[in-house]
Design brief:
Blueprint: H1 4-28, E1 32-35, H2 39-62, H3 74-98, E2 107-109, H4 126-141, H5 145-174, H6 176-184
Antiparallel strand pairs: 1-2
Helix pairs in contact: 1-3, 1-4, 2-5, 3-4, 4-5, 5-6
The structure holds S-adenosyl-L-homocysteine (SAH).
S-adenosyl-L-homocysteine (SAH) binds near residues 115 and 120.
C-alpha cells in the first residue's frame, strides 16, 4: 500500500501540472525573438524530469530499489507536505509574475520586459527556488533514499547547467538594467545565495 507521503507527493505533482498548464498554453502564443535552446539544456531538462518524475513514479509503481527504503515517519511526511505546498505556492506566484515571458527553455519573447516584482524582487530565479523546494519535499515525502533524493539531484543538474547561460542571455538583452537587478538580488535564496 502507498504510504501517506507517497499520496501527498502524487497529489503535489498533479497540482503542479494544473498550475503549469494554462501558462504553457499562453506562452506558446507569444512570438520568440531569440532562442538560446541548446542540446545541453535539453539534456539537463531530461535529467530534471527523470529525477523529479520518472524515477519516483517508477519507484511508486514497482517499489524498486527496495534496498534503499527507509522507515517513513510522521514528522518527515508533515515537513515534506509543508515544503511541497510552499513550492507550489512559489511556482504559481512566479508563473503569474512572469506571465507570457515564461519559457521551458531560454528564450527572449516579443517586447520582452524585465520582471523585478513579486518574488522576482527577492531572488532572480524564484521558479528554480520552487523546484529546489519541490526536490526537498520529495526527499521528505518518499521513504526511499534513491527515489527521494533523485529530485534534488535532477534539480541540481538543471540549475547549474542553465543559470549561468540564462543570466548571460538576460545581460545581453537587458544590459545595465539586468546588471543593476543582479546587484540587488540573490539567485535562489533571499540574502544568502
Ligand atoms: N529563471 C527564472 C525564469 C525561468 S523561465 C525563474 O527561475 O524564475 C525561463 C525564461 O524566463 C527565460 O526564457 C527568460 O527569458 C525568462 N526570464 C528569466 N528571468 C526573467 C525576468 N526577471 N524578467 C523577465 N523574463 C525573465
Amino acid at each position: 500500500m502507498a504510504s501517506a507521503g507517497e499520496v501527498v507527493w502524487v497529489l503535489g505533482i498533479v497540482a503542479w501540472y494544473i498550475i503549469r498548464y494554462p501558462f504553457e498554453r499562453r506562452a506558446k502564443r507569444t512570438r520568440v525573438v531569440s532562442d538560446q535552446r541548446s542540446l545541453s539544456d535539453t539534456v539537463a531538462l531530461m535529467a530534471a524530469l527523470f529525477g523529479m518524475a520518472i524515477l519516483p513514479i517508477f519507484y511508486l509503481v514497482t517499489g524498486i530499489p527496495q534496498a534503499a527504503d527507509r522507515p517513513a515517519s510522521l514528522w518527515s511526511v508533515a515537513l515534506g507536505a509543508v515544503v511541497f505546498i510552499a513550492a507550489l505556492w512559489m511556482f504559481r506566484r512566479s508563473h503569474k509574475e512572469l506571465g507570457r515571458y515564461w519559457s521551458i527553455t531560454l528564450e527572449i519573447r516579443e517586447r520582452h520586459k524585465l520582471i523585478c516584482d513579486g518574488p522576482y524582487a527577492f531572488v532572480r530565479h524564484p521558479m528554480y527556488t520552487s523546484f529546489l523546494l519541490m526536490g526537498l519535499g520529495q526527499a521528505f515525502l518518499l521513504p526511499n533514499w534513491v527515489a527521494g533524493l533523485a529530485g534534488l539531484a535532477g534539480f541540481a543538474v538543471l540549475f547549474f547547467a542553465r543559470v549561468g547561460k540564462e543570466e548571460r542571455m538576460m545581460l545581453e538583452s537587458f544590459g545595465e538594467q539586468y546588471r543593476d537587478y543582479m546587484g540587488r538580488t540573490k539567485r535562489l535564496i533571499p540574502y544568502l545565495y
